[in-house]
Amino acid sequence: MILTIHDNNLQKVAFIDNNKQGTLNFYNDKWTRYLSKASSLFEFTVFKQTIQTDIVPYQTANALNDRSFVSFVYKGRTYLFNVMTIEETEHIITCTCKDLNLELTNEYTNPFKSDKARTFKEYCDVMGLLEFATLRIGVNEISDQKRTLGWEGQDTKLNRILSLANKFDAEVDFEVKLNANGTIKDFILNVYREHDDKHQGVGKVRSDIILKKGKNIRSIKRKIDKTDLIVNAIRPTAQGENGQEITIAGLGPWEVKNENGVVEFFQQGDMLYAPISMQKYPSTWTGSTGNRDKYTRKDITVDTKSKETLRTQAYKELMRSAYPSVTYEIDGYVDLEIGDTAKVYNGDFYPALLLEVRVSEQTISFTKPSTNKTVFDNVRALKSKLSSGIQERWQELFEASKPYLIKLATDNGVIFKNGIGQSIVTPTLYKGGRPITANVTWRWSLDGAVKTGMTYTVRGADVTDTSTLTVAAYIGNDEVAVDELTFVNVLDGRDGGVGPKGDPGQRGADGLPGRDGVGIRSTTVTYASSTNGTTAPTTGWTAAVPTVAPGNYLWTKTVWTYTDGNTETGYTVSRIGRDGNTGRDGIAGKDGVGIRSTTITYGKSTSGTIQPTSWTSQVPSVPNGQFLWTKTVWAYTDNTSETGYSVAKMGEIGPTGAKGDRGATGPQGLQGPAGPQGPRGIQGLQGPKGDQGIAGPKGADGRTQYTHIAYADNATGGGFSQTDQTKAYIGMYQDFTAINSTNPTSYRWSKWKGSDGAQGIPGPKGADGRTPYIHWAYSDSADGTGLTTSDNGQRYIGHYSDYTQADSTDKTKYRWADRWAKIEVGGRNILRNATFSNPKERSETFTVGGTTYKNIEIPNWGSMYNSGITNPTISYHAFYRESFNGTGPVIEFNESNGQRNWKALYQTLQASDLRVGKYTFSADIFTTGVGTKIRFGIYYYNKAGQQSFHSGLTTIDISTINKWHRVSGNLKLNDDIDFNREVRIYIYAYDFTTNSILYLTKPQLEEGTVATTFGEAQADVEKRIDAKADQAFTQEQLNLLNERAGIMQAELEAKASLDTVNNILKQIKDMKAADEATWAKVEKDLITHLQRVIKIETNLGDQAQRWNAVDTFMQVSNDGLSLGKADGSSSMLFSPDGRITMFSSGTPVMYVDKGVIHIDNGIFSKTVQIGRFREEQYHNNPDINVKRYVY
Question: Which GO terms of the molecular function aspect are on file (predicted)?
């Protein structure tokens, strides 16, 4: 299972994968799903560790925070969770997550009472349940139903959706789909009819699964309870509009029959009756007054105005009350989905119990499946339709499904001493408590060696420390059961000789007990179990390690007998914990031997193919473009070793470019050259297992050796697979054939995934018994100045180790490292209009050095004029400039005239954008000289009503001059802030030590301690997008207008009077006459124009003549007459062949040629005629067009 961590923008930032090395792992996970709430909770714990891809300690683990989201894929469906609570210690992070987005669970909807019947979707729309949650309705099985409903009081949107579904007798579930980058692609609300005999509701009918005791459930308990009153008759009433009583009297005949055709419910008068219930549970005390009195009656009141609804609600209440409640408790987990229904069979009841159940709640753990649990609801007893013979056959099949068990017996126990002796193991196979002997064969495996036989002899000489014997039972060629038995070989040490007496030594503070000057004759080790971890037990000591319950303590007592006859006793104690998570894959070791030690060293090189010659135990600083080499040396217990290398190239870091305004999309250009290599991305997901590995280097004999790997469920190769890595055993062998063998006996099997073992045999005494300690400290300075042992987010971390438990305050003892090196964090700019856009001139002015400056007002920023300057006529203010040195707009802080006056830029911040914590301010700076600086801080009211920089001011001295560069600094916002009052940020730049000028642009205020690339505030971006969207006239609006015009046109035509028609005909005739007269005049004018006497004639030949005005021109040549704007933005060409062409920036946009007009878009303000049909604007309403036939 892979967990994906998303940031607060749902971008993927990290992965948690228990099946992959080099990533974070999770455990103690619990996923609980609820049918009734249509939601689920997910809890899990992550062990905090620094993985290989982390640049600073815990970088990946810290991505899991209160702003994170978590997702995973289960059975092909994506589940997305919001991290709601985080509990963190020095070593672990525990998260509790809730699905559905926060708007559904946190946003409230108001009371509502409908004045008419509405559909489910109409209620969602009118109450705004889906408006702000990016939610849509998918499946809707009740789309044709309408009801008149109402709600009193406020409620969350999620609860209102669930209440609405309940009032429509429906069920809902939510489905989320994500894009490849982790953002939400679709969020769907599915609505189903409520589960009953005819409708499934949420989930599926799983007729392919039958739940049986002992197979997939542990037990079934049935409880019949009639503590609540049994009711056989109900009289329902309601209150009408005028307060009158409404009953069901007067409705037509009504009855409900059971599956046998017998009437189970019927109506008589204003009451409903349940006759079968009355016969089973009669009211015996009133039977003497007649049969009707045997009914137990109940009156109910229903909030409705409909008689049909009144009877429906009464029928539901009578069904619930007519019979005792029968509940079934089913213990076990079944791999079903929420809402699925399945059948349950238990032959231990008589008659056999056959139920239909539905999954209403489910708890799943991916790391500890043994804790999985399924809760069933809507339990319904089914009647068996099988004959007695078929039921007997069913029972036989049920017996056949019982599992096989192996019992093992030894003739000499399981413990050997000094490798002496042997023990014969004899197996017996059982099925359902009966021994099975026919056609049974056995396969044995001890430390990977596989044999067959009816018994197995284990020799002490073959057992080193501990060995596990695995036995598998086969009936024919089918493996039916597997069991294991562990053997132990205990070795006695030889007595050492008496050494010469040495000088008396000092007694060690923490050393193990010993006697000066004498040898140890013997050592006796015994063990005992206890619930106390501080006081050694007085009884129960044995030579064998006892079984200790999780949470209890294992005590080890060692008695040393010395050569001088004296003895000493020592105790050690360890607490037995619960089974841990499945461990990650270990580094590959040699076959048959263990790894004594692993040594990792690092080196840097300019080559990615030739190893460096110098290696260190610390990771060196590698320049960009060079290579970091890692060398790993494995030393094995057979005194051999192997060496492996890995190499990584450090990517080039390019400069951060200034963010420009978004331009129009241009035509696609040619493919450019490949850019420089980017920074290293986050680690990808685990890829699928390859079929055949890459062949290794050839050996001395010229042949290629291959290593073959397979997986199995046990040490004999049972459940053999070459791809399933989830199995508990791994098998390996080597040969010179590339094809993998499918014979399990070819592999040497070993267990590579299992639970923690028991306490091992104590090792030998250490050299001096001293305990090493590692010390950590933190500082804001690179040399450790002002160090503390508390991690408060300081930039630098230091460490050293010694044999003293107390932490040193000497900063020189620590090795210091920059925890923020090479970190790049995506931030959100809190400052509005950080680009200083849309400035406006004001009437105020000030004059310095004979130059008058106008006060410029910048939206969202405070006025800079006379900002505390006592004489505004001779001193500079902080003022706006459109640009400086290729960058702009900028704010200029000028002290070039020697006046050191107060200058500032400030903005009132939105309380919704702020919270208590750490912030970073950054800006682009250009200064003309040294000695300049900027100061900034948050100016607010504290809870005592005082206004000041309560969290302090930060100063940055500017050392880089005569070029644009970005600076940043940290500031805080303390928890004494009053968010209900005004909060400002001030940016000062004055009191320089030289007569210099400082320019500032692109300011950014963001949460966190790391400055990020400049970006506009989200509100500014959305505002600009909305402004552009408002200018667009959508096709949907056009379609609505066309539809409206068509309707109104039809109405107007139907109402047109004879006078109106005559008036329209007159207009058409007038227009036709004017059109014909115009054409005649044009023809006459052309003839007259050509017949006029030419006064000036110029023979241009292949040249052209041009007349230029201020910004227009007119030119004549053999190609025709052209006129237009001098800058080429627009022009027209009248060609001699009669073609008229219009150009925009040199591109043709319209032409008229031989009676044809070609144009992409056009607007006719009144009339257009095609053939004998004319479309024009209706004279009484400009919003309507009409078409008329013209003759």
Answer: extracellular matrix structural constituent conferring tensile strength
Question: Which tokens belong to 389?
Answer: 């013979």
Of the chain, the end-to-end C-alpha distance in Å amounts to 79
Q: Residue ranges of the domains in the chain?
A: 2-206, 207-222+328-400, 227-323, 404-490, 520-575, 595-650, 702-754, 840-1019
The helix (H) or strand (E) run that includes residue 1083 is helix 1058-1091
pLDDT number for residue 385: 47
Residue 268's pLDDT is what? 92
pTM value is 0.35
Buried-exposed string 256-267: b where 16+ CB fall within 10 A, e elsewhere:
eeeeeeeebbeb
Distances (CA, A) of 851 to 26, 896, 928: 68, 14, 20
Share of the chain above pLDDT 90, in %: 23
Q: What's the token pair of residue 1140?
A: 């008229």
Partners of 564 in the β-ladder: none
657-684 confidence digits (pLDDT tens): 556 556 555 555 555 555 555 554 444 4
Could you tell me the sign of the dihedral formed by the alpha carbons of 754, 756, 761, 763, in that order?
A: positive
For residue 255, give Cα distances in angstroms to 267, 292, 451, 830.
6, 17, 74, 68
Confirm whether 404-490 and 840-1019 share one CATH topology: no
pLDDT tens digit string along 792-834? 777 788 888 888 888 899 999 998 887 665 444 547 899 999 9
Tokens for 942, please give them: 């504290």
Measured at the CA of 512, the angle between CA 511 and CA 517, to 5 degrees, comes to 95
Distance CA 129, CA 1153 (A): 59
Q: How far apart, in whole angstroms, are the C-alpha atoms of residue 589 and residue 647? A: 21
Eight-state DSSP code of residue 1104:
-
Backbone φ and ψ of 440, nearest 5° = -105, 130
Residue count (the chain): 1191
Q: What distance in Å separates the CA atoms of residue 621 and residue 603, rounded to the nearest whole number? A: 9
Q: How many CA atoms does the CB half-sphere of 1110 hold within 13 Å?
A: 0
> Residue holding tokens 């006592």?
870
Q: How many CB atoms lie within 10 A of CB 527?
A: 17
Amino acid at 25: N
The overall longest dimension of the chain from CA atoms, in Å, is: 150
927, 1037 Cβ separation under 8 angstroms: no
User: Pairing relation of β-strands 184-193 and 136-140?
Assistant: parallel
Residues 866 and 864: their CA atoms lie apart, in Å, by 6
DSSP state of 883: -
What is the per-residue pLDDT for 932? 95
CA–CA dist 876, 881 (Å, integer): 13
- Which has the closest alpha carbon to 47: 3, 16, 5? 16
By the 8 A CB rule, do 367 and 18 touch? yes
Q: Which token pair is 79?
A: 């589940």
What is the fold of 840-1019? Jelly Rolls (2.60.120)
Cα–Cα separations (whole angstroms), residue 263 to 248, 897, 950: 19, 105, 81
Phi/psi for 329 (5° steps) reads -105, 120
Domain 404-490 belongs in CATH node 3.10.28.10: no
CA distance 1162 to 1146: 20
Give me 78's structure tokens. 């994506």
Distance separating alpha carbons of residues 979 and 911, to the nearest angstrom: 6
Q: How far apart are CA 843 and CA 849, in angstroms?
A: 20
- Kindly report, residue by residue over 890-931, the tens digit of the pLDDT: 999 999 988 888 889 999 999 888 989 999 999 999 999 999
Give the span between the Cα atoms of 158 and 132, in whole angstroms: 13
Of the candidates 433, 382, 384, the one whose C-alpha atom is nearest the C-alpha of residue 407 is 433
Give per-residue pLDDT as tens, 1112-1171: 888 888 888 889 887 777 889 888 888 898 888 777 888 888 778 888 777 777 788 888
Dihedral (CA of 308, 310, 313, 319) sign: negative
